[in-house]
Amino acid sequence: MKFILAISLLLCLSLSYEVNASCSGDCPETEDVVWALGGGCSVFRNKCFFDKANCTRRPALQIVTKEECQKHCASACPQNYDPVSGDYKGQIRHFGNACEKIVHSCQTGETFLN
Ligand SMILES: *[C@@H]1O[C@H](CO)[C@@H](O)[C@H](O)[C@H]1NC(C)=O
Fold it and tell me: What span is annotated as the signal peptide, if there is one (predicted)?
């Protein structure tokens, strides 16, 4: 009886882990870019980062090709100077503000981990 209980507990835990696995936790840094539409074009480092974002986005994000997505990159940013930087493969890039960083990722496919 105790054995059955332990087994079902384990099963429950692993099931709930499966469900939450894509919504939280750390993603690998592997570069396997995912392009998605949903109120503009979003670029994700890999499917894991995509899944995390798609967990909370309603309506859900839609995975599309790079070409399709890039038609929907924002092109204009506010001109405010509120500098941010990003590390792409060990190269530090600087942007005037967070919007410019997002547009850069959209236009180039360079995804930053910070
Ligand atoms: C995004 O999330 C929705 C709703 O949870 C889900 O139905 C859809 O399959 C997800 N999209 C992808 C590509 O995983």
Answer: 1-21
